[in-house]
Structures are given as C-alpha cells and as structure tokens.
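Contributing new complexes? Match this layout with 1-deoxynojirimycin.
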Amino acid sequence: MEPGIENYKLNKDLFGDDFVWGISTAAPQIEGSCDSDGRGKSVWDVFTEIKGKVLNGDKPTTTCDFYNRYRDDITLVKQLNIPNFRFSIAWPRIMPSGTGNVNQAGIDYYNQIINYCLELGIEPWVTIYHWDLPYALEQKGGWTNREIVNWFGNYVRVCADNFGDRVKHWMVMNEPAVFTGAGYFLGIHAPGRTGIKNFLPAIHHSVLCMAAGGKILRERLPDAEIGTTFSCSYIEPYSEKDKDVAAAKRADAMINRLFIEAVSGMGYPDDVSVFKEIENYMLPGDEKLMAFDFDFIGIQNYTREIVKSAFWVPYIGAKLVKAEDRNVPITSMKWEVHAPAIYHAIKQFNAYPQVKKIIITENGAAFPDVVINEVVNDTERLTYLQDHLSQVLRAKNEGCKVAGYFVWTLTDNFEWAEGYHPRFGLIYIDFSTQQRIIKASGHWYGDFLK
Ligand code: NOJ
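Output block (do not edit by hand):
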C-alpha cells in the first residue's frame, strides 16, 4: 500500500487558499441541440450515425440538453459551492463550416453561459477544442491536412475576440493523444480513420495547432492564463523482465510523453521508432512552431495501466493487461481504481522543468448508479474522489506545483463510443425525463468546498 490515503484527514484548507477547485464538462457531451440556431455538423454527429460505432446506437442529439438548461445546471454548480466551471466552445456552433462565416447565434449562446457564470460568481474556464471538429473540415482531410493550422488559428481568434474580455483561463486543446489515437489510428472515435498514415500527420498538426493557439491567445489576451490538457495514465511493467520494462517504456512514450515533450520543445520521443516518421510531415522551422510555454498544464488521470511485451503488436510491441484480468476493483469503463496513479502522474509531469504549473483538469469515475427513493448513494465514487484527492495532496505536500483540481463531471452525459452507459456525473440524469438528482458524491463535494 502506498502512503497517502490513510495519512490525511481530507480538508480543503490543507490544499491552501489559492488552490483552484472546479468541475469539468465538454460541449459535445452535454449540449445536444445539434441542429439548432445554425450549428454545423460535427464529426461526432456523422460518426454516431454509423451502425456499430457507439454502444447501443446512442447519439449525442439531446444528451443532457445543456443547450436549453444551462441556467439550471450552472445554478446547480453554484448550489454545490463549486467556484470554477470548465466547458468547451463547440467549433461547429460558432463556425458552422469550420472556417469563414461566424454564427452569431453560437457566439450569443456562449456569451450567455459566460455571463451567467460571472453573475453567480463562478469563474469560467474555457476549453477551445474538445473533439467536435466541424464535419466540413473533416471532408477536407481534418487533422491530416496541414491547412488545419490556419483553420484552427481562426477559430482560436474568434474565441479570443468574442469571449476574452471576460474569460481569464483557457485550455487550447483537450487530450490530443486520445482524439488522434482513437480517431485517426484505431478508428474507434470520430472520424473513424485508421492507420499510421492518418495518425502521424494528425499528431504533428495537433501539436502545431496547440502551440499556435497558445501564441494567438497570448498575443490577444496578454493577461489571460493559458493552458492545454493531456490525458495520462501511470504506466507500470507487468514484470521486472527486461522486455516488459522496455515495452512499458514505449507505452509511456506513446500514452504520456508524446505531446507534452513535443510542445515543451523536446521534439518527439524516439523510444517508439515509428515516431521518427513524423519527420515526413514536418517542414523546415517546425521545431520552433511546435513549442509554446503554457502557463499551466492540465493533466487528466483516471487510472494506471500495466504493460506487457507483445512483439506482434505493430509499432509499439506492447499490450495493456486488462484490469478485468488482474483481479482489481474496476469502474464501468473497466478501468482499474488505483488512486496512487494520480500521484505518480503529477510527479512525472512535475519533473519537466518546462511545466510551470499543473492543474488536474479531470479526475472522476463511472459506476452503475441506482436511484432509490430519489436518492443516489454512490459511495464508490465518493471514496474514489477522496482517495484521489489524498494522493493529490501527497504530491502537493512533497513540493509538486499542483495548483488545482476539477472533477469530471457535473452531470451524467454522452461518453463518446460508450454512449450513455457510463455515468460519471456528480449529478444523476434520467435521460428520458431530464430529471436531475444530486448524488451523494455531489453533496459531499459541495460540503467539502463550503
Ligand atoms: C477524458 C475526456 O476529456 C472526456 O471527454 C471523457 O468523458 C473523460 N475523459 C472520461 O472518459
């Protein structure tokens, strides 16, 4: 047993007065109203129409109807004493074909959200890109087309110019490793492309966009705090054998190091030999264009992975040993519940001198909640959050520059290829009636933050 859990009596004051507390959401997972008020189609609208791509054929057309119910839901954020609200700006809502025309109704919508947050004394934290690429751009090659650097730059400019007078905290991009890996290599997320010839240019162009986006924000909003967010899973080898240790190192390069190192000016890690081929998509001067000194790095951790050598797996020669086969506690996503993972993830990112500040921009868990007499007693989620917070505190007390924590997520919502089955919310949603019930974990977070 690693230290931390039993060593701390959890109390908000232990994290210090300036520690940032929040809750995270993303437009495509909560808004619905995909065709309303001039919104264009996103890659997810199209992908979810294809049979077999999303569990149970679930679609994001309504989700939790945040588009119409945002005032009620932000009021719930207030009721839970959560001072910071993270949400994303749907690219196809503000620029229906991705570039060129700006949809004023979309801009008005996000202005209402921002203004309502501020009216309630809640600080808005904006993610610019959370995976909903306009479908019109995907038809031109999407993330594989280098033109995206210009398209993305315009989108960032529209966000900065319309919302930057009130939004002080920005995240340029959400989890590039996931949308490029799942969407352009494995084909299990939108737009469903596969293979190395899609994956490698998507990686490089998303790095260029992240850095370009950071620069545009800083130029236009010199006082804003600018970050970007990365997925990370603490990786451990299956055994001490050299081949498993080496496989774990390659998996770590792909899962955790690829994007933070590229954007920190360190280039692409050479532990995975296929990454050398990214050079085929680089132009002279790109090394400089890839880097940006973000004010903070958002890290999003849910679990750890155990990695084993597997010579037959192309490019990486490694495989993840499923948590289900390891006799460990798991969530509805079949991810292992292992709180020290977040401590190790913080330590790993903290070791980069380029990382100035770390904010946990997502952490949370899906469990099969049940409603009994209008009450959801989700003790597993509550324990998960407390245990993970203890580990965040352990890292902070050891001097790591971790300065904030956002729970994923406010309400149950559309979990991508998994549809509505995994429930991550602090607030339960009955998707047939849109009734909201604050779960025990939500009440706990509210009391903790009081
Ligand atoms: C990371 C993603 O940013 C978010 O969209 C997703 O729902 C959660 N992790 C849980 O899988």
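Reviewers usually confirm one structural detail per submission. For this one: The chain has one domain: 12-449.
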